[in-house]
Write the structure tokens for this entry.
Amino acid sequence: ALAGCAGHYRPPGERAEAEAEPEEEERRASRDDDDEDDEETSGGAATIDAALTGARPLGLGEAVAVPGTGVTLRPPLGSEPMPFGGGFVSRRSRVQLSVVVAQGGEELLESMRTGGSGEAPEPDAEDEVTVAGVDARIGRDRVQTQAGVLERMWLMAHDGSRALGVIAMYEAERAEAYRGGMREALESVEWDREATIDAAAALGIQLGPIEGMELSRRSTANVVYLPPGSPFPPEPNTPVLTVSPLPMAVPPDQVARACPQIAARLVPAPSSDVELEGVIDDGSLPGCERLALMDTESGDRVATYAGLVFHEGAPLLVTASVAADDVETWQPRFA
């Protein structure tokens, strides 16, 4: 599975901010050239916002489809497809627009908005809208991160069997300049509710064939493989393999040291229960892996696997689990 991972990932954290610095200088340099034109054509609040924050109102591009989701929308001008994620990134405007579609109940909407965190903020504002003929909500909130305060504006909809979440993130200090454009982007969403859900297409992560498993088409959030005919969510002791990009960047010269530390945190277990631990060096991407036996809350003994591979310092995480008695059969398929 790890050997089949392919794609390109540029995390929006430290690396994206560092790379955006020259572009910030370009904006400052071009601001002086453009100010006279802005005064003639924009005026009002937009000119004031640009003067106070250095952020110009967002312009939108043409409608673009997000692969694997059935969603089409107008992203900010200059956006690129999000690497290893469904949606778009504008490095110049420092905006990220994420799209997730999943089958399930309405509770998925709150999970999408909060990321499963019990500490997620309550919405600052919320409006009712319609998308694809179903009721939806557009709202916004703010979250504190290590890089500062981010504002999020989101669209949430549920048609009775599928949930749609479109979440935009941008720096809070740019909020007044960006809100109008982001609202327009969310209102441009078109949703084909009958489209095939394809996480591999949405995330740009393709795996080679895995014996005894097939791609689950229930959510675009992660690439999930299950035995044919398995229910979703999978039942206890059902073999399951998940591939997810991790939102971090590790300098290439620190991968060898950091990888085992990350794997140990993902699969915490005493050394006596660790069945496998080592480096991955037989593919195009470097990494490491760890497999350990663990007891679940229900008393079942399971084997839990975590493998990481790195592309330009960005990790892809492969996790898998299976009943401990079946580990010899499934371990070679996970690695």
